[in-house]
Design goal:
Chain B: Keywords: Amino-acid transport, Cell membrane, Membrane, Transmembrane, Transmembrane helix, Transport. Chain B: One of its GO terms (biological process) is amino acid transport. Chain B: It is found in: Cell membrane. The complex is a heterodimer of chains A (274) and B (222). Chain A contains ten helices and twelve strands. With 274 residues, chain A is of the alpha/beta class. In chain A, strand 9, helix 7 (199-215) and strand 10 (219-223) form a beta-alpha-beta unit. Chain B contains ten helices and no strands. By secondary structure, chain B is mostly helical. In chain B, helix 1 (5-16) crosses helix 9, helix 2 (19-44) crosses helix 5 (82-107) and helix 5 runs antiparallel to helix 8. Chain B is elongated. Chain B has one domain: MetI-like fold. The chains are: A alpha/beta (274), B mainly alpha (222). The interface between A and B is medium-sized, with 29 and 24 residues. Bound molecules: adenosine-5'-diphosphate and magnesium ion. Residues 31, 34, 36, 54, 56-62 of chain A line the site of adenosine-5'-diphosphate.
């Protein structure tokens, strides 16, 4: 598919439609008195790759942490696959979600963290099979086969018996990606997954992400400071500034033809440093 | 009073024959404190506030009263054998300290491990079982081991409620023969002989702990 064709087939993000898988409605998030997100409205379509960019502290991480149910919105609702995260319907009324409901909705979401967060006491293989076996109830051998497949995909098929401490940062992050992939989430969240890596290890992780993005119908929300990568992979770019979506659209528009001064100066920083 | 070697050798077998009771009480009390300590830690972290406050209060109460008083109280209030009473009271008393050890281990597990577990959709129980406790406990094993020695040294308290452990036997011999020096010294010697190697072993565990699996091969990485 050419860039042009793809652009046309992607339905306008921001509007609720049959393809919507993630939907933030009037979401506000405050920590104590500090409001970090205000009236956020955002729709992500099934299969869409969304890049979130913006200065540090602008609220990017908070947006995806709320989707992973690691933070609770102060106001508003978040829906995944038509289901509210923090509320459930009981006899036509919406009541606060309990742990059971949260686990159900969490099942469609996976997340990869900046600091990898592998389980240090488990081998690479067990890092990747523990959740499929105990959460999804997949048979042990099948889980192993699936984990092996994903580890092969990220180029670490020969590390299965090692422990996280024996791997480089880039390798650990690729394991973390594989660990998330084996759960086959509908939506995958990536929070600056290359930010903690030595510069020479960034490329290997971005390659893996590009692979996943190119083959899958997995919806991806990616926070990144790698602008070139965002342009190559994303269907839609969100520029966050001060807790608001300040600019958004197709990567070519947002990244190459920024409208606001804020975005221009933000992007300018990358041109200088790169 | 001068030391009488002959008398010492004569009473030695009687005293050492009580070592089984001492060790048995230690092991039983230790087992209780290890399990109850973990239960207390988990209950104290309950998100149900009244429960966690209640547990905190109970822990405080148990710690603030002397174990000997607790021994007498339970011994006279309940109809249990001296040994069972002793094991339970010491076990419960030290459970409150052991619980503190578990707590420090649990708090040392980074919150990012909880978050990773949520992202993989583990249940709370699974997160405790597979992620948090396996990382929280190994580093505190030396501290837990220390309480084994502490408990061991506390068992003479049980002589107060007529458990026939080593000190009770020594006192018995003393009051029968009017010679206390040898029997009591022998008791002290036997405690030393058992405690010291255990302490060395714990020091060895301390040196080993804190290493992540696999990090040894890489050498210096800590
Ligand atoms: N747990 C928290 N408690 C208090 N403030 C927080 C917390 N998490 C994030 N914040 C604040 O929210 C704002 C947005 O943070 P974040 O979403 O991490 O931004 P970004 O990922 O874009 O750098 C920042 O000002 C940050 O200090
Ligand atoms: Mg962030």
């Amino acid at each position: 598919m050419t860039e042009e064709a793809r652009e046309e087939t992607v339905e306008t993000p921001g509007e609720d439609n049959a393809n919507t898988i993630v939907s933030y409605k009037n979401v506000k998030k405050a920590f104590g008195d500090t409001v970090v997100l205000n009236d956020l409205n955002l729709n992500v379509n099934q299969g869409e790759k969304v890049a979130l960019i913006g200065p540090s502290g602008s609220g990017k991480t908070t947006i995806i942490r709320m989707l992973m149910t690691l933070e609770q919105p102060t106001e508003g609702t978040i829906e995944v696959d038509g289901e509210m995260l923090w509320h459930k319907e009981v006899k036509g009324e919406f009541v606060p979600a309990d742990e059971k409901h949260l686990r159900k909705v969490r099942g469609s979401i996976g997340m990869v963290f900046q600091q990898y967060n592998l389980f240090p006491h488990m081998t690479i293989m067990r890092n990747c099979t523990e959740a499929p076996v105990h959460v999804l109830g997949v048979d042990k051998n099948e889980a192993k086969a699936r984990a092996q497949e994903m580890l092969d995909k990220v180029g670490l098929g020969d590390k299965v018996d090692q422990y996280p401490a024996q791997l480089s940062g880039g390798q650990q992050q690729r394991v973390a990606i594989a660990r998330s992939l084996v759960m086959q989430p509908k939506v995958m969240l990536f929070d600056e997954v290359t930010a903690a890596l030595d510069p020479e290890l960034v490329g290997e992780v971005l390659e893996v992400l590009k692979d996943i993005a190119s083959e899958g119908d997995t919806t991806m929300m990616i926070i990144t400071h790698e602008m070139e990568f965002a342009r190559d992979v994303a269907d839609h770019v969100l520029f966050l500034d001060n807790g608001k979506i300040a600019e958004q659209g197709h990567p070519r528009n947002v990244l190459e033809n920024p409208q606001s001064e804020r975005l221009q100066s933000f992007l300018g920083r990358f041109i200088e440093t790169n | 009073m001068t030391w009488d070697w002959e008398f010492a050798f004569e009473v030695f077998p009687d005293i050492i024959s009580a070592i089984g009771i001492t060790i048995g009480a230690t092991v039983a009390a230790y087992f209780i404190s290890l399990t109850l300590g973990l239960v207390l830690t988990l209950l104290r972290r309950s998100s149900f506030k009244p429960l966690s406050l209640l547990i905190a209060g109970v822990i405080e109460f148990i710690r603030m009263t002397p174990p000997l008083v607790q021994l007498f109280f339970v011994y006279f209030a309940f109809d249990m054998s001296p040994f069972v009473t002793g094991a339970i009271v010491l076990g419960v008393h030290y459970a409150t300290y052991v619980s503190e050890v578990y707590r420090s281990g649990i708090e040392a597990v980074p919150s990012s491990q909880w978050e990773a577990s949520k992202a993989l959709n583990f249940s709370r129980a699974q997160t405790w079982q597979k992620v948090v406790l396996p990382q929280a406990i190994p580093p505190v094993i030396p501290m837990l081991g220390n309480y084994l020695i502490v408990l061991f040294k506390e068992t003479p308290l049980l002589s107060g409620i007529y458990v026939l452990e080593m000190l009770a036997v020594a006192q018995q011999i003393g009051s029968d023969t009017y010679r206390f020096l040898e029997p009591v010294t022998i008791v002290g010697f036997l405690f030393l002989v058992l405690s010291y190697p255990s302490a060395l072993f714990i020091r060895y565990l301390e040196k080993r702990s804190g290493k992540l699996p696999g990090s040894a091969e890489k050498g210096v990485k800590t």
